[in-house]
Amino acid sequence: MVNEVGGLPTFDVEAINWVVPIAVGFYDGYNYMEFLKEEEDDDIIWRFLCYLKENYRSSSIYAHCASKFDSKFILASLCKHGEIAGLEAGLLRLKWREPNITFEDSYFILPMSLSKANKLFGVEEKKDWDYSLKLNPWEMKEKLPTFRDYLKIDCLSLSHSLFKLCELLGYTFGCMPSVTIATTAAKVFDKYYYDLNSIDSNEGFEPYIRKAIYGGRNEVYRRYGENINYYDIKSMYVSCYDVPVPIGKMRWIKPDIDSGTLAEATVKVPKDFYIGPLPVRLGRIPQTLIFPVGEFTGWYDVRELKFAASLGVDVIIRRQLYCEEEPILREFGNFVGKLRGTKEDSFWKLFGLALSGKLGQSRWRDTIKHLTEIKNFEGYSPMDYDETYFTKKEYIKGRAPYIKPAIAMRIRAEARMRHLKALLDAKSRGNIYYCDTDSIFTNQELETGDEVGDLKLLDKADMGYFIRQKLYALVKKGKLRQVSAGYSDLKLSEEDFKHLLQGGTLEGEVEFLSTYRETLKGKELRLISYPRRLRILDTLNTRRPIGYDTEPIRLPFQEGLEPSLGIHNLYHLE
Description:
The protein is α+β, with helices and mostly antiparallel strands. It contains 15 helices and 30 strands.
């Protein structure tokens, strides 16, 4: 455990039902303060802000997951008292203008739970508190010391974890964290490995490049299985940093699959392929990424087209772009790969991945400004009834040295190819059930290793129920582990999963804290509930279910198949 000396300023808001604040803890790196609600009308958030204004002007203060919780209370209080707040990237960075105090979300610097961060850096571990009690401080009685200790440790442990992170980055790279881990990684790469300003951004060709940028594969192959082995590829994206990436000025060339950087191509994937090799975006917004068979046209990285052709796909290139390429990420990838073996392994995993994410970042962003900051209101839309705050979608031109989308295109394409090779190998030996970006669920034992890019066995399960993307359950020794992104508040039993496999429907509700937009419109912070419905035919829309098995979607669509896929009238291919 570290001593209670030295750290970054941190705060933590505690609330009843997540909407009624009852306490604020604050640690300035040396001294701890707390603000406990003393009566029903006690505005503890404003008391806390007045204390900061008097004693900590021109400071930056951190809370973990602040943009989803703590900073919403800060914004609501500032608006209530007529103070001017600046919202930078939403609530990721909230600035109180007059005293120049900034409230930052530490999760984007250290993207893991606070408990995990505490264990990673060996500091005070986050304690537990029973939120179901729903008590004001004066009602807690003998439980009050436990609550106060919980609040204090939350602030101190975050402060000390961030301090340890600064030490880690300072010792390793001689730099401090930026606003996000992705920006930090890009700054490190730019400073020590390669001048990103010397890489051509190719903004004139960006529409074509963006069409060739696709995400990872996430598919259900068999919806139920037994004796399952769960693997993933260790640091898959970082392992792909060894390939040449586009760095020069794009130019048109004659179609040639043995050269070029990206191309528009019409492809014909044989209909007997069990796993489609190339991605297609389906629908408008939100879009679904599928890997179909049949005939379709799209923009792709040439390396991915060449790999598909080697598998037996017919490729007709229609237009093609080329630029100089060099393996400029290799040295960075090798160094970060070696850091994976240290005790800070989980941080370096995210740090390495963050670089390619930053290079592929969109140039479009939503900006929110107070009316006093706007000289020309053209393009802005009011966000609140009093027209105090305005929003505008802006294109970042010439101010984005870390956005190099062609590099992100290449790394993602290479990662999909390596993932597909592993899937094809597993399928040649037996059954595959599910995959997500870099994972494989199979009933076979695959070769593993300790190096970056090798397969790693994460777990085994007696049974698995795979309902849809990011919704499945593994049963091991009679215990069910549910994985359900977007359905975390809907706890399912094994019988529920069996019901879903048979085409049944389950319903539940998901809650979230009201947004900053509602706060700016004068509405009180509250929990908003909305219903969620799970039904197999509406959710399994990346492949076509056939009993417990599935098959790739066939393009162009066959008449009568669309409704069963849950994507009726959404087909759109750019």
